[in-house]
Amino acid sequence: xxxxxxxELKIIDQFGPHLAFSGGKRLDPGVKAxxxxxxxxxFCGQQCGxxxxxxxxxxxxxxxxxxxxxxxxxxxxxxxxxxxxxxHTDRLLHALQRDPGAPGGFRDIxxxxxxxxxxxxxxxxxxxxxxxxxxxLTGASLTTEKAYLMGKFARVCLKTANIDYNGRLCMVSAGxxxxxxxGIDRAANPWKDILGAQVVWISGANVAxxxxxxxxxxxxxxxxxxxxxxxxxxxxxxxxxxDLFLPIKPGRDAALxxxxxxxxxxxxxxxxxxxxxxxxxxDQLAQSVRxxxxxxxxxxxxxxxxxxxxxxxxxxxxxxxxxxxxxxxEHHSHGVQNCLGAIxxxxxxxxxxxxxxxxxxxxxxxxxxxxxxxxxxxDQLPGGRDISNPEHRAFIxxxxxxxxxxxxxxxxxxYEIFRKIDRGEIKGLLSICFNxxxxxxxxxxxxxxxxxxxxxxAIDFFLNxxxxxxxxxxxxxxxxxxxxxxxxxxxxxxxxNKAVECPGDAREDWKTIQAIAKALGRPHGLSxxxxxxxxxxxxxxxKGGICDYSGITYEKIEKQYGVCWPCPSDDHPGTPRLFEPxxxxxxxxxxxxxxxxxxxxxxxxxxxxxxxxxxxxxFPLMLTTGRxxxxxxxxxxxxxxxxxxxxxxxxxxxxxxxxxxxxxxxDRDWATAESRRGSITLRAQVVTTIRPDTIFxxxxxAGRKSAxxxxxxxxxxxxxxxxxxxxxxxxxxxxxxxxxxxxxEAQQ
Amino acid sequence: MVPQTNNFYIDxxxxxxxxxxxxxCGECDTHKGHPMIHLEFLDRAHSxxxxxxxxxxxxxxxxxxxxxxxxxxxxxDGVVQSARKPRCIAxxxxxxxxxxxxxxMKSEFELMMKCDMCYDRTSEGKRPMCATVCPSQALFFGTxxxxxxxxxxxxxxxxxxxxxxxxxxxxxMMIPKESPVEHVDVTxxxxxxxxxxxxxxxILQTDAAADVMTAGMYAEAAP
Lengths: 748, 223
Known about the structure:
Helix content of chain A: 25-40%
Largest interface: A-B, 66 and 51 residues
Number of strands of chain A: 28
Structural class of chain A: alpha/beta
Strand content of chain A: 15-25%
CATH class of the largest domain in chain A: Alpha Beta
Radius of gyration of chain A: 25 Å
Largest sheet of chain B: 4 strands, mixed
Distance between the termini of chain A: 25 Å
Number of helices of chain A: 25
Largest sheet of chain A: 7 strands, mixed
CATH topology of the largest domain in chain A: Rossmann fold
Oligomer: heterodimer
Order of helices and strands of chain B: EHEEHHEEHHEHEEHH
Strand content of chain B: 15-25%
Number of helices of chain B: 8
Number of strands of chain B: 8
Shape of chain A: globular
Radius of gyration of chain B: 19 Å
């Protein structure tokens, strides 16, 4: 029974989101901190270094950490105010049981009793419907230790194939493309290689709002003479002062890259030596892009031919360069093709594997990198190993001390898990660090599926919108309340240090997971006493794999300000830059710098296909979604931090004045956007910084303010990433303000 | 004392509007909970251009000149401090006189507070909160040598002409290396009326910004 227990307004009243502001010790300049804890931000994949000020087991503020080399004290507003999530009034202090009669629909129960009920429900569902009828959903904000543990818990304890994670919404298109082209999924270069690049190409990355610290690297490159090319349907803050802005139609990136490559070939802006000596598949690719004339590229992408030619010339003739992309090209039903298109123009230029010549996706979540390497993905085992590969299975089965035959095979992706729930194939769910009711597309379907579960247990520190459906809620740990490693956007493994103890009955997530295993009577391999013990096993499990952490220790991380994997031995310093000439890797074994047996990078034909849902007379606009700088993902944390909510309180529909005038909508008017899946009424923001055929809504809000009521659940066939960045929509002026505007606070 | 070798530089062309400066300002011990910096969207309808506004710390501060109680003092290092509590009569003269809207009247304390360059930090050799956290380094605090080495395309200026008045400030603005300093003629801007934002500083994007979107689009697709 996983329906919402009572009226949502009552749940909100009890559990929030409410806003926290500074007060008490946090405002008193006379209070001196007991200690400063060097750690990292809890939000995005940049993982800025920060020092938390701690007084009496409370985080009272922060002090910049000037020495940490990636950000040298710099922080975005989220990092500055993140300490307000600690000691929050909405913090879950006890285990909760669904109780429609209780205020807010949940009542406190004892921790051990809750664990017992969870174990009983798992046992019942699995014995009745089979092991795979119980699924696990996890997140990429978990430390790598926890991510590793979740994979092991699912495969060894629950023996279910159905585990997946919210990196499915984030990194998988880039990851799949990187594996196809390079044989490895990691940033090819450290960010310092941006500084000396002559051309910085940014496709579909709102750098200033989603990865603010990267801005300074780009501006610094420009000080040295770099030209900055930005491809985006919106003039984002990073685009405002770029040298060349290409206002692309959402979802047409593969076409643009094909057009650029075609011009590179036509003008012979190619590195023939590199292509001949270090790559495979160029001739077939060259054949495939021949049809992408500048005229056709312009027609499809919606960018003027002149600008496409100029971009190709700047890119083609540069001596050094760095190409960055993010969710703007990845969140598509052909996201992998878009990424492959980007990689193709990098490989054709030969500008990779050396100083000032680089390529990378910009990782979104805190542990977007580490969280996708060690086994919480449905098809993967630790060390970046493949769950379908017999050798990989045998290796990990040995580390885990289990019979390989007992290890489940590949499961399905996070969205498919909900389709299976809807079809009645999955009956029970455990979720941690994932808020799919806000973050998955077409989320009215997600709410419907959640209501069909026989049993749902959520582990979280706040009662997020999805957890409102839970039968049992277990109070988990905030990032500040535990230690472990994460791997940030450059592939640098860094250490999160504990600042405060878990409050009340809350405890570190790894303890909770192990308590469930114990209560199930299946504690094998799940009796770690500390994150350090988990990391020690993870090092062994990753040894010899592509994501080799075996030479990384907590001590080495502290000493070096992080260690970039692969780091295959104790005396190895780590690998900040991949693909350097002459470099060795376990796949090529010296044959070349890329991670294939022949050591060569692979060109891939990156076919252009239009978005799944093209515009038509009924739905004539393209809807695209994204982030604002003061909020993070589904807002479970940031919609509870007062100063961040005040900075951008509620979502708005961004539209061009030409479109607004046609529909009679003025700035700040209420407007209704509709798709085939849902409708949303928000205030209009009328700006010339967006294409007139496109509207934009940020996605951090829940319920009737959730942009994902409208988005489409179409997925990339390879990566299974949903198509958040384009669907067909229509827009009209709203007749009246929406009901929620009088019922809810901005963040609710 | 703030070491004389350390200077404050503002480069609005780098500003991304993230408000990390505003959020961090309120974390400084001299004005905890009270951000003294503000961020301006110049013309959001047509651009994402923003600019952070801190106290420029005039050589001859207007706020101090108009203070009837002589409550606003500049320390020897050139930092214009918040009003002194025993003297401030909360008259708001300074608030009205400052051309940048920097001083804030805090009615709960009956005291004018303003950006003091995070005096608790800068007087100990640290950087101010805003310039430390700024992710785009639109706000920079450091030495002349550092700024020269880092900002090859621009140069610092701290002398501004408003009408017939020349103002020298402790804080520097970064302007393009080759560009002349544009002197702001306030009366000329007034002729355009309040709605038309024709004030143009060469450090900002030109007024062609409004057309960047549609000018870059494929003609058939353009409206």
